[in-house]
Amino acid sequence: MKNFLLAIFFATAAIAAPDPSSCRCQPNQPCWPSPQEWNALNSSIDGNLVAVQPAAAPCHINPNSTACQEVTAQWTNSVWRAAQPGAVQWENWAAWPEQNESCYIETAAYMPCQQGRISLYSAVVQNARHIQEAVRFAKQHNVRLAIKNSGHDFHGRSAAPNSLQILTNRMKGIQLVDNFVPNGAPNDEGEGPAVTLDAGISLQEINAALSKQNRTVVGGSAHTVGLTGGYIQGGGHSFLSPWKGMASDNALEFNVVTASVWRAALKLLQGDLVTANAYQNSDLFWALRGGGGGTFGVITQVTVRTFEEIPLVITSMNITTAAGDPAFWNAVADFHAALPAVTDARGGGYYTVTPILPWEKNQTLSVLSFTHFHANTSNTTEIGQVYEPLVKKLNATADVHTQYRSFPMPSFHEAITKLLLVGDADTTGQIAFLFSRLFSRDLLTSQDGPARLASTLSKFRYTPGEPIAGIVVGGGAVAENAGKVDSALNPAWRKAVVHIVYVRSWSPNATLAEQQAVIKNVTDVELPLLQGVEGADKMGAYVNEAFPYEPNFQDSFWGSNYPRLYSIKQKWDPDGLFIARRMVGSEDWDDQGLCRIAK
């Protein structure tokens, strides 16, 4: 095997040397691993350690090169980005604005390409043993660790400055069983049909494999969602959730490499591979189902329930008025009042509210559009009765125009490939972050709740074409599982019907002050508006699609579950090896997870 030669092509002199007793080791310190030690790690993982440069680096080195042409062609391809150690899905998380470090493809080639928050090295792991070696190395040398499955993360949790990345994207195993028996189950009691998934398999790959066996799972609706990663560990919503619950509700077992594990003699072992289910390490099992990704260890495999393929009824509707007509926001209220009945009928899906939509002939419209998926039925007449009161009311309202249609689909696989996962990849590679809130059934069934929500949404300032995203994935089985599934999932999910999301951005040339102004406006103005609909402490937000600078994130993301989660974190990772933005235990560290905060 050839020696692995490593070189660092970035400036570190400007970074002050931190206190080694409370901070991660940095490249400019004596504690930083030597080239020989990095070579030893490379050998231990069979030559799969790579030095990482930001994805746009070839275009700053030579914009006419073949490498730059490839990067440019693939820049917005989510599947390509998932496989690149030097790429994340949302480019703002590749930059480190506090240190004025970035490497954007949009900026001039002569501008310096700097490492930013992109890891310095990546262990492109192929199996669980590789993960163990990387975890042990990071622990031994006090190096910041970052875990990347696909980089499909709105909090930037798969990137960290001066870190060692564990990239699980190459782990693609999938195994179906007719009756899964968790390790340690009494009398070999099985849980029924299930599938065991390796860490790097994507939703797109899972759907393709399961459809051949006439099976399906509760999963997301983007090509690069890594079901075994932050998706399921954060809870994992789906338009199938009103039918079968959250993805985490259907997790049966995890195999996970932890920072340490408790043995009978209370001895801590580094980088151990453990099984977590209802019978073994049940506290860890509880935490992994909703407690957040990148926090308790590196998942190598997860086993989830599978279900027989089902037919669906697809419903869609456009609700349109002239822009600025007050009738539009009344229609928005009426639509939200109808959502509890939709989820009762095992319907879930997506909608957008676009208050200012430029249209033909200099017209400007306000439009609400939805597509819902009603599981396990082909009866369009029966499902139509769910929407009939809404359609009648809107059609009787002056200046409100509606277009409603419904049609059956023979299978989940056909629905998702023809309507949602169209093509081979999603479009990413932009600068974006989210803020959001969950809204409850109690609100939407109350006398003034829908109007209060619509009134709040109307108070935001919108640019032409800017939508609000609504995700109807609560209610139904999600609510019913409140008394059946004990997990770390935010308890607010059991009361929620809809998850409403806003997107914010800035240009690649935005200064730190300009970026901070956008964040401050969300923190001080926009997020409090959403919180005020039901009260800041009532519902909270979905951890995977929330504000990455969320104040009081502990309560917003986990509510009453947080104290137990923090205790489990201290048991399994007392030194804080696994730290991710606004995740459990991150309050003990600075924003980049590099130094502990003095208390």
From TrEMBL:
Query: Is Signal among this UniProt entry's keywords?
Result: yes
- InterPro entries named in the record: BBE, FAD-bd_PCMH, FAD-bd_PCMH-like_sf, FAD-bd_PCMH_sub2, FAD-linked_Oxidoreductase, Oxid_FAD_bind_N
Residues making up the signal peptide according to the UniProt record? 1-16
Query: Where in this chain does the record put each FAD-binding PCMH-type domain?
Result: 114-309
The protein's UniProt keywords, in alphabetical order, are: FAD, Flavoprotein, Oxidoreductase, Signal
Cofactor(s) it depends on: FAD
**Sample GO molecular function, one term:** FAD binding
> Which protein family is it in?
Belongs to the oxygen-dependent FAD-linked oxidoreductase family.
Q: What is the official name of this protein in its record?
A: FAD-binding PCMH-type domain-containing protein
Source organism of the structure: Aspergillus pseudoviridinutans
